[in-house]
Amino acid sequence: MTDAPAPHPPPTEHHAAAPRAVRAAVLTVSDTRTPETDTSGAYLLSELRGAGHEVTGYRIVRDEAEGIRLALGELMRGAVVVISSGGTGITGRDVTIPVVESLLTKPMPGFGELFRMLSYREVGGAAMLSRAVGGLAGGTLLFALPGSLNAVQTAWTGLLQGELGHLAFEVARHGQPGGGS
């Protein structure tokens, strides 16, 4: 077995040019969570603010396609990145992923692949149940994470925390087709 690459490689020129803070929003998809019980959403809000990012919105919506689509549309208008949690599994109520995928103009399959790789280390084969996805929706980065606090922490610390500025830089660097920033 070979050693895995370092999870946080040395900064590149693009990392150095990246903004230190981005406008970000959080969406929790749940039939049962409230602002008082939404530990995953609270974690993301705390981490984003703690890293110096500007939180432009936070919503909780039921696991219903139209509500998710409307909330994402509203949050995307004021944010460079929107992170959702919940509704990514395989039950009949889990409809976040089809909604997010319908909005993506440039999917980033590596996000879901890396998330499941990190999750596998923690939960074993159950990681295959996650349909976590990420990509670009117009000019907004959109990431859909599972709803559990552990999964959100894994995605944040393992993938998003050190890359949000770099991702925002790459999105804006040459503009986006169709007028996206």
Give structural attributes.
six-stranded mixed β-sheet; 181 residues; globular; 7 helices; alpha/beta; 6 strands
Which band does the percent of strand residues land in?
15-25%
- Integer-rounded radius of gyration: 16 Å
- Level of helix content? 40-55%
**Could you describe the largest sheet, including whether it forms a barrel?**
6 strands, mixed
Could you describe the 3D structure shown?
The protein has 181 residues and is of the alpha/beta class. The chain is built from seven helices and six strands; from the N terminus they run αβαβαβαβαββαα. Strand 5 and strand 6 form a beta hairpin. Helix 2 runs parallel beside helix 6, helix 3 packs across helix 4 and helix 5 crosses helix 6. The mean pLDDT is 91.
Nutshell version of this structure?
By secondary structure, the chain is α/β, with parallel strands linked by helices. 41% of the residues lie in helices and 18% in strands. The model has no long low-confidence stretch (mean pLDDT 91).
Summarize the SSE layout with pairings.
Elements: H1 13-17, E1 23-29, H2 39-50, E2 54-61, H3 65-77, E3 81-85, H4 96-103, E4 106-107, H5 109-123, E5 133-137, E6 140-145, H6 149-160, H7 164-173
Parallel strand pairs: 1-2, 1-3, 3-6
Antiparallel strand pairs: 4-5, 5-6
